[in-house]
Amino acid sequence: MEKRTWLFLLTALLLAAGLMFACGKASSSSTTPTIDDDNDSTDDDGSPDDDASPDDDDDDNDDASPDDDDNDDATPPTEKIQFTLTDVLTGAAVPGATCELVRDDGSSFSPPVTVTSDSSGMCTFNGGAKTDLYSAKVTMNGYITIYAFDWPVIANTGGWVFRMVTPLERTGLALLLGVTLDSSKGVVAGGVDWIGSDGTSQDVGCATVSDDASDTFFYFDSTGTPSKSRTNTNPVNGLFLAVNIPPGSLTIHADTNGDTVDTTVPVVFADMIVYAPLTYYYAQYPTNPTPGSCS
């Protein structure tokens, strides 16, 4: 960051102020989510049980009927879902945004399920909480449309924090990373996290993120600024970012000292931002997999 043109200084200001092209989470809560318990050891989608109790069944994302994941393409989720919107530059809450629960391809339910972010930037859907996944879309004048696919419901108060990004801030990001944005492609960003037995999440550090197309992934320093030199996630935030991803589906992987998890982004949209989680769960990983030497 040696250039001193006014544009680069503006870019540095934008990014140093908190350009986190990914999720964060609000403060922790002692509230434990209600478990969705079918008393078997295998999820309905055929994968190993992935929750804190060895006999619960939270299948998370299958479309079989009957199922209990509340994130299939037929019906919208029914559990309590909260997430918070903040401006990437100022960190201020973004009230008045339209928040919508969507299907896994980004399309609306019928009828659409929408709420408006409140004065604290929070979008709240439904009633009682349980551990599950949800997908959402957020639109707001002056900001780039964002999608968040298959995010786990967490017990942290306020849920995940998704950063709203203006076109100018996105341009600043590209300048900082030395890339040329292609408007026919999209941005994929997110966080690597571990969800403990109490349903709260923690950042995972020293994870390397990749996809099958060998795209370049960037990581963030401790101030939340994207870095060209860091080679894995920062334990302070666990964030990652990739730009110029072609529209379509994408599978991404996290490897933390040999412990691996995957997630499939069902669709990337041109000229938009998709937030994707890479999550380690307590059932498979009793402790946060961040190496003790990670910095």
Could you tell me the radius of gyration in angstroms?
18 Å
Main pleated sheet: 10 strands, mixed
Distance between the termini: 22 Å
**Quantity of strands, as a count:** 17
Mean pLDDT: 80
Encode the helix/strand succession as letters.
HEEEEEEEEHEEEEEEEEE
Shape: globular
Unreliable stretches covering 5 or more consecutive residues:
1-20, 28-72
Q: Give the helix level as a range of percent.
A: under 10%
What structural class do the secondary elements suggest?
A: mainly beta
Helix count, DSSP H or I runs of 4 or more residues: 2
Strand coverage percent: 35-45%
Q: Can you walk me through this structure?
A:
The chain is mainly β and 295 residues long. It contains two helices and 17 strands. The strands form three sheets. Strands 3, 4, 6, 7, 9, 10, 12, 13, 14 and 17 form a ten-stranded mixed beta sheet that branches. It has a four-stranded mixed beta sheet with strand order 1-8-2-5, with no helix packed on it. The chain has a three-stranded antiparallel beta sheet with strand order 11-15-16, with no helix packed on it. β6 and β7 (146-152) form a beta hairpin. α1 packs across α2. The longest helix is centred in the N-terminal third of the chain and has 11 residues, at 6-16. The model is unreliable at 1-20 and 28-72 (pLDDT under 50).
